[in-house]
Structure formats: C-alpha cells, structure tokens
Protein: Putative LysR family transcriptional regulator
Organism: Gordonia malaquae NBRC 108250
Amino acid sequence: MELRHIRYLLAVADHGSFTRAAESLHISQPTLSHQVRQLEKALGVVLVDRSGRTVRLTDAGEAYAHHARLAMRDLAAGRRAVDDVVDLSRGHLRVAITPTFTAYLVGPLINRFHAAHPGLTLTIREATQDAIEAALLLDEIDAGIAFGAPHAPGIVASTLYTESLSLVTNADHPLASSSVTLELRTAMRHPLVLLTDDFATRRQLDAHFDAHDAPPRVTVEVSSVSALIEAVRSAPLLTVLPYAITLNHPELVRIPVTPQLPTRDVTLLRRDSDYQSSASRAFDAIVRELVAEHRGA
C-alpha cells in the first residue's frame, strides 16, 4: 500500500465517479481503477460499490476513508512543520477573514507580511465567521480574523481592537450638510443600502435597530462591502460602515446619530492547540503591529 492509493480512493469518494476523479488526478481511468483495486486487495475488503450508475463507497470504504482523511491531514501538518524553520525562509500560512475586514485590512497586512517575510507564502480567503471557525477545526486554515462572539468549542479568540460603526452617505445627500446629531429613528426613515442578513454585521444592526425601536427603511441589499461602498457613493442612500473604512473614502460623509451605532470586538481566531508555527507567530505579531499603529493614528 502506498500513499497514492489513499489519495486515489479519496478522489473517487469526493467525485463519485472514476472518470471525474481520474481527470482531477491527471491519470487515466483504467490506471485509477487498477490502483483502487490494489488497495482493496491489500485490505481484503471491497471499498467501492461499482454496481450503480454512480460510484459510492461501501460501509467499509466510508470507515476507511474517514481515517484516511485524518491521516492525510496529519501528513499535511507534518509537511508544514518541516517547512516551519526558525529563520522563516520558507513556509506557508493560510488565513481567512470576514468580508468587512478585507475592505481595509488585507492590503496593509499583505504588504507588511511580504516585506517582513518574503520567503513565506500567504493564502488569504474571505469567509463568514461560521465558515472560518469550521475551517480552523478542520485544519484547513491556520488563523482567522472575525468578530468577538460565542465561539465553537476548540476555538481560541484573542481581542485585537474594538471596531466602531458609522452611518455614512455621499456629499450630495441632504443629510450630508447637517451639523446636528440625528435621532436614530429619524435617520432610519431615509432609504438605506445594507448588507444581506447572512452577514454578521447586518444581524448585529438589525438587533440594534429593534432594541431602539428604529426600523430601517432598507431599499437596497447587497452581498459585498465593495458593492455597499459603490452604492452609497453613487445613489442618495445611507449605509453603515466600519469607521476604519470611512477613513479610506474621504468622499463619504459620516452622520452622527443618537443613540450611537454599536461597536464590536475584532478577534484573532485559532485552534485550541499547544503548537503554533513560526509563520503563524510572525503573522500574529504583524497583525498586532498594524492594530497598534491604527489605534495610535
């Protein structure tokens, strides 16, 4: 039995087809079928049910695949540990960030990380908080940046800073020239563009509006922060953005309201593990440097 046999079986399980699995592995279908049969012969059981139109694992195959995935995950972790040299001349870090932060944090973070550690490679993906925590537990990522909230068991969170939210519009909006602080209820009577309710930010805002009996007049919903910014720049609408984003968009005007919009803690998420790679520690330090500079600005 060789490592490739395990990879081949897992590919068949993932694709439900020898043809598609072979294509993904860049080998011929007969070769793949032969290799899987070799694995079955070595184990003395049938792992794949080939009787139907689609291929599926047998009960024995499912049991074996479960442990095989765990083994492959451990092998990948071992490879990263080998790459984790003290001088950080090589290695790879996988990070996920909630969409709000990609609008203002990703650029400076990549620039600082690459300048400090050019030998390290960095993968950053955008994901919801739930997806980030799930990926951490599956060892698909090394760190995440998200909001402070009740976290899944096995997740450790450390607070980076407290983020403020601002009601904003463009310079042509009638409220842009107002010098008085608006009642939240009054402001919410104006048309708004907000993120869809699958975003944690939207759910937090809805709870805040409900608590203060200020139902928002939402006329447009979008599914990205960049679309939110473009919408409020171009149309006579209000929206809510993190204060840090507004600093990068001088064309947007902040409107003070009472009661104030909510704040939330921004946290660095990790698996609850004793081991932290050198690349991960370097990332942690750079994130905290950027946060300290932002707070001192």
Remarks:
- Residues 160 and 193 are 28 Å apart (CA to CA).
- The mean pLDDT is 88.
- The two ends are 59 Å apart (CA to CA).
- Residues 3-83 form a domain with the Arc Repressor Mutant, subunit A fold (CATH 1.10.10.10).
